[in-house]
Amino acid sequence: MPDPSVPQTRTPEAEQSAPEPGRGVSRRALLGTAGATGLVLGAAGGALGYAAAPAPATPLTSIGTDRAMFHGKHQPGITDALQAHGHLVAFDLKPGAGRKQAAALLRRWSVAAERLMAGEAAPHEDTDVARDAGPSSLTVTFGFGHSFFARTGLEKQRPAALDPLPDFSADHLDRKRGEGDLWVQIGANDALVAFHALRTLQKEAGDAARVRWQMNGFNRSPGTTAHAMTTRNLMGQIDGTRNPKPAEPDFDQRIFVPASGEPAWMANGSYAVVRRIRMLLDDWEKLARPAQEAVIGRRKSDGAPLSGGDETTPMDLEKADAQGEYVVPLNAHARITRPDQNGGAAMLRRPFSFHDGYDADGTPDAGLLFICWQADPLRGFVPVQRKLDRGDALSRYLRHEASGLFAVPGGAAKGEYVGQRLLES
Q1: Among 51, 83, 214, 389, which has the highest number of CB atoms less than 10 A from its own CB?
Q2: What are its cofactors (predicted)?
Q3: Cβ count near 227 (within 10 Å)
C-alpha cells in the first residue's frame, strides 16, 4: 500500500472513481495531477508550457509536501521555521457558551487542525480552497486569554503569568483589536492553505464563539534566497539574529513551562505576547543608511554588529571609534535588547510583517505582527519592553497599536484535543 504522505500520480481509473459518501476527497489524494492535462510545470513551479503529448504528472515541490506534526510535546507553530503566510485571530465565547461548549469547540478545532496539517480535507463541508495543495508546512496553534477563565468558571486554573501586561509609553492600543477569550495562530507556506485553515476554524466555531479580531501577515517565501537566511522586516533590517536556538541547553527552560510547573495543565506550554506594531516608514525611510544602522546597532546589508564581524559575531559593546564614542550607540536597539543586558530575559520571536493599505494621507498602514514566546512573560517580554520604553532609539519609529497575552498549553497527545487537561480537570 503506498505511503499516504507521499504524493501519488493519479490514474485514469482514479479520476473516474467517486469518493465514499460523506468522506470527501483528501488534498493529498489530489497531489500531482498537473500532467494529466498535458500542462507541464517546471520543477520550481515557474515556467509554464504545453507538451505535445501527455506527460507524467509533476509532483508538488518540497514546499508543498513539507508537513508539520499536530501531536507532540509542544503545540506546532512555536519552534517551526517561519512561514510565508500567517493569520492571527481571536475569538470570544458567545453569550451562554461556557466550559462545556468551549471543550466541544477545542475538540472540533483539534480534529480540523490535525486533518488540515496532514494535507487532508476539512472534517465538515470542505470549501475546496486548498483541494489541490499539499500541507505546505501548515501549523495551527491555540491559546487562552485572561477572560476565558471567568467565562468558563475556571478562574482557579488561571495562571498568574497571564495577568494583564503593564502599560508602556509606546502603546496607542485599540482595545477592540487586542486580547480575547481564545487565540489561534495559523502559518503556512501557501496562501490558500493558510486561508483554508482560517475559514475552516471560523466555520467550526459555530454557535460557541465569534471572531473578535483578525490580522494577516507574511514573510519571505522559502527558497527565494540561495541559502537559508534570517528574515528581513519592512524596515529592510535583518530581524531575529539573536533568537534563542532549540540546540541551546537552556532553551526549554526559557521558552516552555516545565513539566512540573504550575498550573499543571500548562506543562510543556508557553506564553505568547502578540503585538501589532505600526512602523512609521515615511519617517524611517528619510534616514540615511548610516543613521538607520546606528538606530539598530547592526549593518543593514548583512546584519553584522557595528562592532564588526558577521551576523552571528558577538557584539562588542565596549568598542569605541577614534573619537572615543561607542561604535554601537548606547540607545541602539540591538544593545538594549541583548539578554545579557536584561538579566538574561529571553523570548523566542516568531513574527509576521503586515501591510493593510494606506491612511487617507497616504501613510502606509504597515509593520510587524510581533509574536514572542516565553516560559513567563514577566521574566521575558515585560523587562525588555520596559527597558525599550526608557531609551530605545527605534521607539520613535514604532507605534504599538494592539496587544494580547495568551496561555498556550502543551501539545495534545494522540486521541486528545488541545486544552483537554484544563477543560476536563
Answers
A1: 83
A2: heme b
A3: 4
Name the pLDDT band for 328 (thresholds 50, 70, 90).
very high
Q: Report residue 48 as a C-alpha cell.
A: 509554464
Burial of 169 (0-12, 13-18, 19+ CB in 10 A): exposed
Quote the CA–CA distance of 31 and 4 in Å, as a whole number: 11
E runs forming strands in 37-104: 39-41, 48-50, 85-93
Q: Please, what sign has the CA dihedral across residues 412, 413, 416, 421?
A: negative
Cβ contact 115:62 at 8 Å: no
* Encoded amino acid at 76, one letter: P
Q: What is the mean pLDDT of residues 56-77?
A: 85
Question: Nine-digit cell at 372?
Answer: 514572542
Active site residue 239: yes
Query: Rounded to whole angstroms, how far apart are CA atoms 254 and 247?
Result: 12
Gap between the Cα atoms of 369 and 386, Å rounded: 19
Please say whether the beta carbons of 297 and 306 come within 8 A.
yes
Alpha-carbon distances, residue 303 vs 113, 349, 379, 383, 388 (angstroms): 36, 16, 27, 24, 20
Q: How far apart are CA 60 and CA 7, in angstroms?
A: 7
Does the pTM exceed 0.70? yes
**3-class DSSP assignment, residue 140:** strand
71-107 pLDDT tens trace: 999 999 999 999 999 999 999 999 999 999 999 999 9
Residue 147's φ and ψ, nearest 5 degrees, are -70, -20
**What pLDDT, on the 0 to 100 scale, is given for residue 170?**
87
- In this predicted structure, the answer to whether residue 2 has a pLDDT above a threshold of 60 is no
Q: Which residues contact 198 (CB under 8 A, 6 or more apart)?
A: 87, 89, 186, 214
Segment 336-356, tens digit of pLDDT = 998 787 788 889 999 999 999
Please report, as a single letter, which amino acid is at residue 145: G
DSSP 3-state assignment of 195?
A: helix
**Would you list the domain boundaries of the chain?**
67-425
Which residue is catalytic, options 239, 252, 376, 392?
A: 239
Question: Is the separation of the CB atoms in 145 and 89 below 8 Å?
Answer: no
